Every structure is written in structure tokens, then in C-alpha cells.
Amino acid sequence: MKGVVFTEFLDFVSGTLGADVADDVIDEAAVPNGGAYTAVGTYPHTEMQALVAALSRRTGRPAPELLSLFGRHLCRRFSVKYPEFFRAQTTLFDFLDSVDGHIHGEVHKLYPDAELPVFRLARRGTDAIDLDYASCRPLEALAEGMIHAAADHYGEPVAIATSRVAEAAGSFVRFSIRHAA
Ligand code: HEM
């Protein structure tokens, strides 16, 4: 997993709960190098799981809830760091379509070692889509938070229903996303 995800996670923890909590979480997760991540480095994604689990113990909040909150933070940060990806689309659904078709492709060109999920989007009329998320990492709560932050960015609030679909070719998570009234 790219270091930018780790540096943003630690910024998220410091920014919301304070630098002391971020330090405690690093200590408690016992990650190598004392949590000294560089944005362009690559680290085992199990270290992210250890950090989230430590934060969950520290706060008493479930790990998926924390991952979803972090997903909102991460997407907001991406909108500041890479505004061109957001400017390139005018609607939430077009933006979400561009994540797999364009954005993550550009990420992969820059960082061939990036481990990116696969998203498939199907339109369900004008007000709804199904966005299927496939990854060998269990980060659907992170994706859900990112989708909500993107919805805020475009001023298009949505309701998201999440289901797990098992098919012969493999299983994936389906986000059924609908514009909220
Ligand atoms: C400008 C926008 C975006 C940029 C620059 C970006 C970039 C990245 C990068 C660098 C990673 C780390 C890859 C690795 O760990 O090696 C990543 C992972 C990920 N991205 Fe994006 N991303 C963007 C938008 C989104 C959006 C809107 C979603 C949700 C719909 C999303 C979902 C994810 C998820 C869930 C992962 C974790 C890897 C996994 O699940 O397997 N990304 N992205």
C-alpha cells in the first residue's frame, strides 16, 4: 500500500484526536520504523490494518466506522492535492466512473507497484448506479467514505446500500448509490 495512504491516515488521527493519540496508535500497533512513512514508499497493507485496529481499541469505535471516516478525509485531501481529477467531471456519477477508467490508471502509471481495486459502474436510470468494488483487501468501508466525500464535493448527497455478491468468478462488494431526495 502506498505511503500516501499511511501519511494521510496519521494526519487524520492527529487532526481529529491529537498528535498524542497518533503516537499512541503507532506504539500500540508496533509497526516497523515507528510509523515513519514516506508518501512515495510502499508498505504492507497489514500495517494499515494494525493501525486501524489500534485506533479502534483506543477509541472504542468499530474499525469499519473509522475506515469510513478516514475515507472521507482521504478523498477530501485528494480533491486538494489533485483538483484536476475532480474538475474533469461535472457530476458525481461521471467522477466515480472515472476512478477506475482514468484516475487509478494514472496512479498506476506513476506507481506501478500501487495495489488498486477494480470498480465497475452500471447506470440504473438517471438517479442511481451500482458501483461494484473488487479488491483482495477488505477496504470497502474506506471506499464508502470516499464516495460520500466525493458526493459532498459535487453537492450531490447520496444514500448508499452495501451488499456482498458472490459469483463463480469471485466475490465483490456492490454499492447501490442513489441520489438522496
Ligand atoms: C483523485 C482521486 C483519487 C486518487 C488520486 C486515488 C489514488 C489512490 C492511491 C494512490 C491508492 C493507494 C494504492 C496502493 O495502496 O498501493 C488508492 C487506493 C484506493 N482507492 Fe483511490 N484514488 C482516488 C479516488 C478514489 C475514489 C473516489 C475511490 C472510491 C470510490 C477510491 C477508492 C480506493 C480504494 C478503496 C483504495 C484502497 C485499495 C483497495 O481497496 O484495494 N479512490 N487510490
Relevant terms:
181 residues; alpha+beta; H-NOX domain; 2 domains; four-stranded antiparallel β-sheet; 7 helices; 54% helix; binds protoporphyrin IX containing FE
Topology:
Layout: H1 3-17, H2 19-29, H3 45-59, H4 63-81, H5 83-87, H6 92-110, E1 118-123, E2 128-134, H7 140-153, E3 158-167, E4 170-179
Antiparallel strand pairs: 1-2, 2-4, 3-4
Give a structural overview:
This protein is an alpha+beta fold and 181 residues long. The chain has two domains: 3-61; 85-179, H-NOX domain. Helix content is 54%, strand content 18%. It contains seven helices and four strands. A four-stranded antiparallel sheet has the order 1-2-4-3, covered by helices on one side. The model has no long low-confidence stretch (mean pLDDT 96). Bound molecules: protoporphyrin IX containing FE. Protoporphyrin IX containing FE (HEM) is lined by residues 1-2, 4-5, 75, 78, 82, 85, 96, 99, 103-104, 107, 114-117, 135, 137, 139, 142-143, 146-147, 150.
Return the string of H and E elements: HHHHHHEEHEE
| Number of helical elements | 7
Structural class of the secondary structure composition?
alpha+beta
Give the class-level CATH name of the largest domain.
Alpha Beta
| Poorly predicted parts | none
What can be said about the biggest beta sheet?
4 strands, antiparallel
Can you summarize this structure?
The protein has helices at residues 3-17, 19-29, 45-59, 63-81, 83-87, 92-110, 140-153; strands at residues 118-123, 128-134, 158-167, 170-179.
